[in-house]
Amino acid sequence: MVIRVKLINSQTNSKHFAQYFYLTLNQPIFAMLRTKKSDTNSLTLSKGTPMETSQKHHAATRQTFPVAPQVWGLKTLFVNLFYVANPDGSWVLVDAGVNGYAQQIRDAADEIFGENSRPKAIVLTHGHFDHVGTVRELAEMWQVPVYAHPMEFPYLTGQSNYPPPDSSVGGGAMAYMSFIYPKKPIDIHQFLEVLPPDGSVPGLEGWHWVYTPGHSPGHVSFFREEDRVLIVGDAFTTRDAESAIAVMTDKREVHGPPNYYTPDWGSAHQSVEALLNLSPKIAASGHGMPMKGDELLQQLEDLVKNFWVKAVPKYGRYVHEPAVTDERGIVSLPPAVNNTVPKVLAVAGAVALAGLCWMAIRKRNETHRQHGQQRQYQSYRKERPYSHNRVMTGMPPTIDPDHDNPEAHTNNYP
Ligand SMILES: [Zn+2]
Ligand SMILES: [Zn+2]
C-alpha cells in the first residue's frame, strides 16, 4: 500500500516536473499540457448560478482557488493570475498567465461570473512572459484595455528587451534554465493604457496600485485597504521559486522575488518593505499559494530584515549593481558574469541538479538562519547598494559621484 502511494506521487511529480521543462523548451506545447487542478485547490464545488454562489461565499470553483472575498486565483502551469470582482459583479483580470491557457482562463471566468462574461480591463503586475502569455489573445477577444505602469511599457510595446535574466545566480535548476526563456518583448500597444497616477485601479472599487519595482522596472502590486488584501505579483513569492521541488509541492513560505529575473535588488528590497508597511492580512503572489495572518506578517518582516542574506543571491550579474532603465527601456547593464556551466550541459543536467539543489538549499537555508540570527541587530539598511532606479529614503539626490559622467557609473560605493 505504501509503495503504491509512493509510485502515484512519483508519477505525479515527474509529470509536473516534465511539464515545467517542456514549458521552457517549447512554449506552444502549453495547450497540450494543461494541468488538472488538484483536489486541494478544489475546496468547494458551487451549485446554482456561478454569480450567486461563488461570489457570495467566495468559494473555489472547479478550476480556481479562493484568495479572499471576491478574489479568486487560477494557476497556469506554474504562475497564478487573479479574478477580482466588484460588489455589482463586474470584474477585472490581474495578469494573464502563460501561453496556451486562454481557454482555461475563459472557462474559469464562466464558472465564477457566468457564461460569456468579460472583464472591464486586464491589469498587469508586470510584463514577464509568464504573466502576459495570453494577454493579447484575451484583450483581442474581450476587446478590453490592458493597464500597466509606464516603466513597464518598453517591454510591452516591443521597444526594449528586459534586462537579460541572470542565469549565473545560484539557487537551482530554474536559474540554470533561464537562458532559454523567451527574451523578446511582446507588443500590445493597441490595448495598452497607463495605470492612473492617482493610484486607482481602472474597473475596480476599493483597490489601489502600489509601485513595487526591482523584480522588473515597472512592477506594481494591488491592495484592497478595506480587508488588507494584497496581490503582489513577483515582488515577493510565497514559495521558493529557485527550487524545482517547491515548484511542484507548492509549500507556502515567503521568499524574495525570483532570482533569475530580478535586475535591481536595491529597489526590490525597498518594495518588499513598502508592502510590509501595508500590514497585509492576505497576500497572493504570482508564484505559490496565498498566505495570511501572523504567518504571513512574520515571514514578510523576516524577509525585509534579512533581505540581503535570504533573498539576494550570493553571486550574480545584478547583485552589486542594478540594470539601469528608464521609460524607454535599458540604459545600461553591469557586465555579464561568466557562467562556467556550459549551456548544453546545463539543460542536460537540470533534472539531476534539481535533486542536488534541494539538499543544497536546505543546507544553505540552515546557514542563512544562523547568519540571520547573528545579524538580527544590525541595520539591514546599511547593506543596500545604491540603485539608480529609485531614490533611497533619506538619501540626498546628488549622491552619485559619476553624475557628470553617466558612462562611468558604478554602484559599488564603499
Ligand atoms: Zn516576473
Ligand atoms: Zn513570475
Keywords:
disordered N terminus, 5-stranded mixed sheet, binds zinc ion, alpha/beta, 414 residues, disordered C terminus, Metallo-beta-lactamase, Chain A, 7-stranded mixed sheet, 14% strand
Can you describe this structure in just a few lines?
The chain has helices at 2-25, 50-57, 102-113, 135-142, 173-177, 244-249, 265-276, 293-305, 307-310, 343-374, and strands at 65-68, 71-76, 79-85, 91-94, 121-123, 146-148, 192-194, 207-211, 220-224, 229-233, 282-285, 291-292, 324-326, 329-332. The chain is of the alpha/beta class.
Walk me through the structure.
- The protein is of the alpha/beta class.
- Helices cover 30% and strands 14% of the residues.
- It is built from ten helices and 14 strands.
- The chain has helices spanning 2-25, 50-57, 102-113, 135-142, 173-177, 244-249, 265-276, 293-305, 307-310, 343-374, and strands at residues 65-68, 71-76, 79-85, 91-94, 121-123, 146-148, 192-194, 207-211, 220-224, 229-233, 282-285, 291-292, 324-326, 329-332.
- The strands form three sheets. The protein has a seven-stranded mixed β-sheet, covered by helices on one side.
- Helix 2 packs across helix 3 (102-113) and helix 7 (265-276) packs antiparallel against helix 8 (293-305).
- The longest helix is centred in the last third of the chain and has 32 residues, at 343-374.
- The protein is globular and about 50 Å long.
- The N and C termini lie far apart (61 Å).
- Mean pLDDT is 76; it is low at 1-57, 370-382 and 391-414.
- The protein binds zinc ion (2 copies).
- One zinc ion binds at residues 79, 128, 130-131, 234, 286-287.
